[in-house]
Structures are given as structure tokens and as C-alpha cells.
Amino acid sequence: METLVNDRLLQDRNTMEFNVSTSTPSTSAESLDTVKTRHPRRSLNVSGPVQSYHARLKNFWYPVAFSADLKDDTMVPTDCFEEPWVIFRGKDGKPGCVQNTCAHRACPLHLGSVNEGRIQCPYHGWEYSTDGKCEKMPSTRLLNIKIRALPCLEQEGMIWIWPGDDPPTANLPSLLPPSEFQIHAEIVMELPVEHGLLLDNLLDLAHAPFTHTSTFAKGWSVPSLVKFLTPASGLQGYWDPYPIDMEFRPPCMVLSTIGISKPGKLEGQNTGECSTHLHQLHVCLPSSRQKTRLLYRMSLDFAPVLKHVPFIQYLWRHFAEKVLNEDLRLVLGQQERMLNGANVWNWPVSYDKLGVRYRLWRDAVEQGSKRLPFEKSA
Q1: Taking Cα atoms as reference points, which of 328, 77, 326, 123 lies closest to residue 211?
Q2: Which tens digit of pLDDT belongs to each residue from 130-166?
Q3: Residue 242: CA count within 13 A, CB half-sphere
Q4: What is the pTM of this model?
Q5: Distance between CA 148 and CA 14 in Å, rounded?
Q6: By 3-state DSSP, what share of the chain in percent is helix, strand and coil, each rounded to 5?
Q7: Which PANTHER family match (predicted)?
Q8: 279 with 178: CB under 8 angstroms?
């Protein structure tokens, strides 16, 4: 890892004065009106109703489902950027993604069935292949009709789609845990929050001893200082004093490795000093401006016998939902106030670094910038 530094993006609260304004909904980074310091603080204004997603944000590969959830005769309906899609497997077993709306009478296709690699509308039996072409029209003459289809690939146990207008990139990023880990749980949840707010939450560990008092952070002491240490231009790093490594992986993924001694307990000052670890993947798919499809994968580098415990997947899901519900009541409150004009990034401090960098990355993508604001010039 590059030399770890504390960049000057976030300055101490006592070194400046500023005027707060939440009247203009925006997600752009901007300088404060009143700054009395030689190192001006960068403010983020994330307030008001969520604006329509910029087209540039769609030009990425997005994971939408786990492979295990897509059988040959099943479908996975999902929304992405406020458009309905449905995923199913074609005759060759490869996944495809088509619009979840029949061309005939706009019936949702996921209410139908999959027959010989084609999705059949439950209304009049029209059947579509994975490229969107209608191949069967019972009781009438076959017309040359095609519905929208997205590029769709499968890799390492996940189904990915490309919702943008630009040609898709050739390679998919790897989201698998390191080789010494085994995957123990894959969970999907539909959440009533905007995906950016959920990412803000996942990229923040300082809230744990205050929010997660009934789950994994029960009994944690409150450190006198929490820091997130990163390379000068990176989207990854580690937490101090917690033995946790974390990375934001564009466009909507959070990967973390947690050093533990036994369930619910932390050990050591960094992950390298820990003998056992938990690896997590969170995918926050932007379903709509107030809805997120969350894909969660949990892996361990110890206790492989747990994979064979009957019904263990229900226990993992129960625990994941319990942790998430501790966050959700707070994030829903943030969302309500944000929609009414409050700025959810009104006063970032040092431990907010990774969340701020996510917001700056998102702004840079939407503005078409080739370089992130916190990257050093060559």
C-alpha cells in the first residue's frame, strides 16, 4: 500500500467559521463562503430531493444477483436506475437481462415463466429470448418485435448488467474474498433508502459503538480518536484503532476485512495481527432514488464446519437483518430530512474521509472529470 497519510481534505472544526446553506439541492463539492484558514475546508452539499441519475453513472458494470438465486427455470426481477428489468437464463444457460415489460400490453414479464430458455408473458403467452427478441406469439401471426435488453455477464457467482449507453468494458472486477476464505452467506435485501445514503453508512465505522449496541459492537468502548488512514489518492485504507480494512469499489461496492478473535470481539491493532477474519461484500444497487437493492456476501477464514450446519443460512440472515435494522432507522431519518432540505454532509470530520471520497468520486463521474479532487498531480 502506498504511504499512508492524513490528507488535508478535512480540517479541525475549531479552525474555521462557515455559513451553512441548504437551499439548493446538489451533490457537488464546493468551497465554503466564509473561511478563515490557510487550508480551506471542502464542504459537501447533499440536500433536497435526489436528482435524476446522471447518464455517466450508468456506464459501469453493476452486480444485480447471486448466481445461486438464478436457476434455469427461475427469474430475478430487479429495478436499476428506476427502470424495471428481469434476469433469466437462456437455452445455453447464460444469463440475460430484458426489460420487465411485455411489448404487447405492458404486463410485467416476471409474473410469467421460463420455457426452454425464453421468458413467457403470463397475459397472452408471448415469449422472449435473452436478447429481447419475441420468438413466439400464440394465436396470432408472429411479428418482428424486440424489447430492450442489457449486456449481461456472469462471473465468480454473480450476475452483472451494464445499464449505460456507452459500450461496456471488456473486464469485470473481481469481488471474491482472498483464497483462504470460504463464502458462508449470500443475502439479498430491498431497502427503502437511496443507495448513496446507504453507502455513506457502510463506509463509516465510527458510528458502530453508538448504533450497533445490540449486535456486533455490543460492549465496544468509545475510542478517544477514530481515524481512517488511506493512500493520498486512494479509495481504500484501514481504521485506527479498529483492526478493519475497508475499500470503496466503484461504482457501488464496499469490501471490508475484519480481524476477530471470536464472534463479536475485535482483536489486535490491525488485520495482520489477527489470526481469524471475516470478509464482507456489500453491493448497493441504485434501484430508484429512494430504493436500494443490497447484495451481501459474508466469508470466513476459519470454522469451515459452519457451512454444513443445518439451516445456518437463516441464522446468518437473521443477524444481518438485525445489524441492518440498527442502521436503517437512522438512515431513513436522514433521508426524510434530506428530502426536506437538510444537508446530510453538513459537517464532515476526520473519520468521514472514505465517505467524503465516495461523494467526491460520484461528483467527478457525473461531471466527466478525469481526475478525482483528492488525487495528487503527477
Answers
A1: 326
A2: 999 999 999 999 999 999 999 999 999 999 999 999 9
A3: 29
A4: 0.86
A5: 54
A6: 20, 30, 50
A7: CHLOROPHYLLIDE A OXYGENASE, CHLOROPLASTIC, IRON-SULFUR DOMAIN CONTAINING PROTEIN
A8: yes
Integer Cα distance of 287 and 238 in angstroms = 29
Strands of the sheet containing 158-161, edge to edge, are: 62-66, 158-161, 152-155
End-to-end CA distance of the chain, in Å?
18
Nearest alpha carbon to residue 245 among 235, 233, 237: 237
DSSP assignment letter at 306: G
DSSP character string of 222-291: --S--EEEEETT-SEEEEETTTEEEEEETTTEEEEEEEESSTT-B-SSSGGG-SEEEEEEEEEEEEETTE
Q: Nearest to residue 238, comparing CAs of 348, 327, 353?
A: 353
- Give the Cα separation of 362 and 340 in Å (integer): 22
Helix (H), strand (E), coil (C) string for 291-303: EEEEEEEEEECCC
Per-residue model confidence as pLDDT tens digits over 160-179: 999 999 999 999 999 999 99
